[in-house]
Structure formats: structure tokens, C-alpha cells
Amino acid sequence: MPVSLSSSVKGFQDIFIFQPENYYYIELDNFVVAFDAPRHPAITRNIIRLIGKETNKPIQYVVVSHAHEAHIAGLRPFIEEGATIITTEKASSIIEEIASIPSSNFAGLVFGKPIEVFNMKFVDSEKSITTKDGKRRVEIFNIGDSLNAEGNLVAYLKEENVLIQGGLYSYEGEFNPTNMFFMDWLRKEKFEDAVVLGMGHLPIVAKKLEELKLDIPVTMELFEEKIAKIKATNFPSDEIFGSYSQPR
For 174-194, what is each residue's pLDDT tens digit? Predict the structure, then answer.
């Protein structure tokens, strides 16, 4: 799928977005931080090429929100560039497997060798790490396990008051346990006024908590009751959630 670099996200001149699936990168003083990897290495190579046309700064970090195909399958070209992968320890074995597979393009041509040594940084559950560049900083939080994925990283850009997430808020207006998990974290950590951007599929651009609305009022008591039913059945049925959006 062809990707193109749009202008910076409206209101944030150093945050850039790739269309059509909305992958982001932020340009700091001395390096670039990218967020998530597309579904195929060929798309990632195009993204790297487009970043190189905009800046000669290296891609020093790639933040992997969670280990699902749409957010991680195209990671290898970033590893080839020498980027440090920021992820969870639970996702590390998948990333090592991706690095061990030779590159390919859309025509199926395979090239390159397995990569056995590269840099990863782990963010422990319910903790954070910070990467700084001059006066700019990006704080990466592991907000824990959701029903969507084990381990979920979000990146907070303090100066812009922006949170970048992947797959934690999907179909707007639906009662979704992952939506609720993320919204509850936003409230608990006092990020109600932060602008939320979405990575990968089902993008969210420049929305605040009060705009991430559901069709029905939901209390945490009701939410926990529904989660208990899910655990009992091992799968979220229509009876429990109505129109439920499948894990992303």
C-alpha cells in the first residue's frame, strides 16, 4: 500500500503523519522518534525514505505500542537502520523473530540476513521511561494489559501535551472494553486535557478525552461486571457487548 507524508499534524509542527493508515513520527533536536511499524517491510522502507527527504536526523527510537501485525510486522527495516526498539518484555520474542527473518518486498523477493544483535529497551508494566533531546522529551508509559493486547505502550509529548496510542481506542461510539480501559487510564493519570492521536488503523486525530464519547453511559461497576462475564466465557459475545469491535 503506497504511503505519503502529509504535513505536520494540525497545531503540532514537529509531529508528522503518514497516510492512509496514520503512522506518526516526531522530529526532535537531534533525532527522530517513530511510532509503530506498518504491516509490511516494504511500506516501512517507503516511510524511512520519506523521513529522509524531510530531515537528515537519524531514526533513533521506534516505539512499538503492542505486538499486533498492524503495529509490528514491518519493523525490520527500522532495525536495519540501527533504531533502538522501545517495547515491552512480552513482545521481545516476537521482535527477535521479525529481526531473524530476511527482508522481502511486495513481489516476494527475499534479501538480507538475519539480524541477531540489535537494541531494545523494555518498559515495565505500569512504569515509564523517558528519552530526552535538549529541552524536548518523550515519555513512554506501559499502561498494562488490555483485552486487546498484552502490554500497551503510549507516548506522551509533554511540551505539546499529546498522547500517541495504538489500538487502545477504536470504533468511536461503541462500548468496547479496550476503549474503557484506555479512558479509565487517562482519567486516573490526569491526562484528561491531553490531545490523543491514534496509530495504525482507525486513526484518531487531535481529540481530547471529552470527545472520545460512547453512545451509552457506563460506570466502572458495570464495566467490571461485563469484564467478569468475558473472563467466564473467554470471548466477548454480542450478548455481552452488543456491537463489539474485534481486537486490533
Answer: 557 787 788 888 888 988 888
Please provide the distance, in angstroms rounded to a whole number, between the alpha carbons at the two ends of the chain.
19
Cα 148 to Cα 37: distance, rounded to the nearest angstrom: 18
**DSSP-assigned beta bridge partners for residue 141:** 128, 154
Cβ atoms of 183 and 192 closer than 8 Å: no
pTM score? 0.79
- Of residues 178, 150, 103, 131, the one with CA closest to residue 31: 131
CB of 167 within 8 A of CB of 179? no
Of 15, 130, 147, the C-alpha closest to 61 is 130
For the stretch 45-96, pLDDT in tens is: 889 998 998 899 999 999 999 998 888 988 999 999 999 999 998 899 999 9
